TrEMBL record:
SUPFAM superfamilies: Protein kinase-like (PK-like) (SSF56112). Residues 111-171 form the Aminoglycoside phosphotransferase domain. It comes from Promicromonospora kroppenstedtii. This is Phosphotransferase. InterPro entries: Aminoglycoside_PTrfase, Kinase-like_dom_sf.
Length: 259
């Protein structure tokens, strides 16, 4: 039997506990594929993701515990530093690059692949799945929803949460956020990633991503998932419409209204 188990909060996909220097969570048909992916990207130098150790005697997956702080709500002010924004873009780019060509035998992913399947997407690279040390990004966790997809699909969601465009990003904070300019911060993130996507392209992908996420959240709620998933879905749909409007306005020719 494992030693003392410490519940880790913040997720809504499954129960997660810490046992010593490891993390245990429910496994699924996708777990061997995700573990093969983690081993390969770590072998290629991306050690900021957990190391996989197979299953425990209860059939739960085992991965290494990454020490540090995982932001909750209200979000700490240090989360929004430009250094963290750039670090996130660089880490996501390294993770994507390390995943090129990875195709585990008999691969089973928790989420469906999306075309073009350029890389293995994390699919939830957001602050609540990021580990920070001394206020700087040091790791990326909760990789069980990874699956093949376009680079921009992943980056768009990171921008949604870290630029940020999410309606709940500043819920409950007591500090001033008026100086944060999400569209400009989006440009900084894209620049750090090292891609040539325009603001319009990223916002368009973000709106599509949020619409997809709303449907996914509703389906999980219908299947017995947490009731708050319906509230999340409603926010995603509202945010998707707002972001799509920003994309349309930013696409207007010079002389028109822009963001």
């Amino acid at each position: 039997m494992p030693g003392n188990e410490e519940p880790l909060t913040g997720g809504n996909m499954s129960e997660v506990v810490r046992v010593g220097d490891t993390v245990r969570r429910s496994a699924g048909p996708w777990t061997p594929t995700v573990h093969a992916y983690l081993r390969q990207v770590r072998d290629r130098g991306v050690t900021e993701v957990p190391e996989p150790f197979g299953l425990d005697e209860r059939g739960r997956e085992i991965v290494s515990f990454l020490p540090g702080d995982v932001p909750g709500w209200p979000a700490p002010e240090w989360l929004w530093s430009e250094a963290n924004l750039r670090d996130a873009g660089r880490l996501l780019r390294r993770l994507h690059d390390a995943s090129v060509g990875i195709d585990p035998p008999g691969a089973v992913w928790r989420l469906p692949a999306r075309e073009p399947a350029e890389v293995i997407c994390h699919n939830d690279a957001a602050p609540y799945n990021m580990v920070f040390r001394a206020g700087r990004l040091a790791g990326l966790i909760d990789v069980d929803t990874a699956s093949p997809g376009p680079r921009l699909w992943d980056l768009a969601y990171t921008a949604y949460r870290l630029a940020p465009f999410a309606a709940d990003a500043f819920a409950g904070v007591s500090y001033e956020v008026g100086h944060l300019d999400p569209p400009v911060r989006l440009d900084v993130l894209v620049d750090a990633y090292g891609a040539g996507w325009s603001r319009v392209e990223v916002l368009g992908a973000m709106a599509e991503r949020l619409t997809d996420l709303a449907a996914f959240s509703e389906a999980r709620a219908d299947d017995g998932g947490p009731a708050e998933l319906r509230e999340h879905a409603a926010m995603y749909r509202t945010d998707a419409a707002r972001v799509a409007d920003l994309a349309a306005r930013s696409a207007r020719p010079a002389g028109g209204t822009s963001i």
